[in-house]
Amino acid sequence: MLQHLANGVSLGSLYALIAIGYTMVYGILRLINFAHGDIFMMALYFAFFGIAAFHLPWPVAFVMVILATTLLGMAIERTAYKPLRDAPKNSILISAIGVSFLLENFATYVFSGKPKTFPGIAFFSQFISLGGVEVPWINLYIPVVRVQVVTFFIPVVTIIFLAVLLYIINHTKLGMSMRAVSKDYETASVMGIDVDKVITSTFAIGSGLAAIGAVMWGVRYPPVWPMMGVMPGLKCFIAAVVGGIGNVPGAVLGGFILGMGEILLVASLPSLTGYRDAFAFILLILILLFRPTGILGEKTTEKV
Description:
The structure is a single chain. The chain has 304 residues and is mainly α. It has a single domain (2-290), classed as Orthogonal Bundle (ABC transporter involved in vitamin B12 uptake, BtuC), CATH 1.10.3470. It has helices at 2-29, 36-52, 58-81, 89-111, 122-125, 149-171, 173-183, 185-190, 195-220, 230-243, 248-268, 276-290; strands at 116-117, 127-135, 140-148, 223-224. The strands form 2 sheets. The protein has a two-stranded antiparallel ribbon. The termini are far apart.
């Protein structure tokens, strides 16, 4: 059970890193960026070629991947979303879906549809031992659990970057501008806030976090192919909705709930392994029925 819990926390941390990008963009633009999962996929390809083709040391390759993915996110915002800033929301949504298809077909054409294997990294493949504690007076024994370094590393990275992001949002001028734009787009513009800069920065931060999640995903789950961003993207969107879309801690909470739920479902009921993906959509339906604003979302009241 401890091993399953460790795997659940690791998977939930990956979902959380990617879900933050969804929730930040929605909080600012009220837009579901359906291309976010494919930005995640492109980051994996950047990491794959950086390590396998250019033989860069993995720390250098990871930094380059984060920078390249951040620039990709900013470029998508500038070319596909900014020209439609004043258009109806449906137009921006259709543009986001178009960008998603563009990235998928671009990756298929350039990288081929044949799955590639993310190169192994010795540091993350090592094992550490946890547990081995005996407490006689309560008759409890926790056995030794061997956990891969990456399983332990992913939650730590998620917590660190969540703390940095919350500091930016709550204690910096950029964060204050983000909060102002999320409350009232037009009033923030009138008050002198550079809305375009805030939106571009939001896409940059979200894409950078997706890149961090992508490189950790590649180490944890090696297969890489052009359509691999679809299901993680949908699940991370669900995680953002579960936690309260537009709420950063809520996205992290939703990611952990989704990751833990999937792993524990497979662990406790192996016969339902094939329904692992269905669990996320069932959870989404239940949340929309009983808590439409999400666990940490703001309660809304109908004006009379």
